[in-house]
Amino acid sequence: MTSVRFSLEPAYILHSRQYRESSLLLEALSRGHGRVGLVARGARGAKSRWKNILQPFRPLLLSWTQRGDLGTLTGADQVASPPALVGESLFCGLYANELMVRFLYRSDPHPGLFDFYRHLLTQLAAGKQSQPLLRVFEMQLLQSAGFGLQLDHEHGSDQVICADAWYLYKPEAGPVRCDRGQERDAPLVSGSALLALKTGQIEDHHLKELKQLMRQLIRNHLGDKPIASQALFS
């Protein structure tokens, strides 16, 4: 099998773990090639040229050779200062990273999601309200992973979503109009919240129901294995 070389790809490290005596196994998000798995040989060594660079949230240019599922890192350059994420904003960044590792297939590029992730980090570092940002990021991620949300029409009809109505959102179908007192298996979401999510103009009174909705959808696609970074918020 012939090795393929990739040079100076804009990327972020999503996750890393120790590998053998002095190396790292990395999961990175690249703009042009999606999620990639990389071996960074000797990266934990005292004299490594990559020491303290291969960290989450740092804007990088990565180079690697690919032969099979895992690539071998050959270059890593930090191109800008990392966003200053602390406290809740840091937890939000780790949550976004974990979701991308679990949802995205390797070597499946999503440049739009990459750009939105970069925007997310910038907005979190600037102290913007985190929950609306996360809801829009989750929506973008689901769409990139092939699970796009139906937010403007009711399931099975051409009836547009009504801001004053309430809906049961079925993960494999979409929103079904319901009465608030009707017996159901999941919380209802208002039409105004669905429309706000579609436009990204989320107001405070939408946050609780949209959080419930997105957790329901994410759990439906990922199964019962918990999202480890959610524990940080408590």
Textual characterization of the structure:
It is a single chain. By secondary structure, the protein is α+β, with helices and mostly antiparallel strands. The protein has a domain of 75 residues: OB fold (Dihydrolipoamide Acetyltransferase, E2P) (Beta Barrel), CATH 2.40.50.140. Helix content is 30%, strand content 25%. The chain is built from five helices and eight strands. It has a five-stranded mixed barrel. A hairpin with a 3-residue loop joins strand 6 and strand 7. Helix 1 packs antiparallel against helix 2. The termini are far apart. The mean pLDDT is 94.
CATH topology descriptor of the domain at 4-78: OB fold (Dihydrolipoamide Acetyltransferase, E2P)
β-strand percent reads 25-35%
- Output the number of helix runs: 5
Main β-sheet description: 5 strands, mixed, barrel
Computed Rg: 20 Å
Percent helix: 25-40%
What's the average pLDDT? 94
CATH class annotation of the domain at 4-78? Mainly Beta
Order of strands, widest sheet: 1-2-3-5-4
Q: Looking at the structure, what is the overall shape?
A: elongated
Low-confidence stretches: none
Our measurement of the CA-to-CA distance between the termini, rounded to an integer number of angstroms, reads 48 Å
Instruction: Kindly report the name of the CATH homologous superfamily of the domain at 4-78.
Output: Nucleic acid-binding proteins
Question: Secondary-structure element sequence?
Answer: EEEEEHHHEEEHH
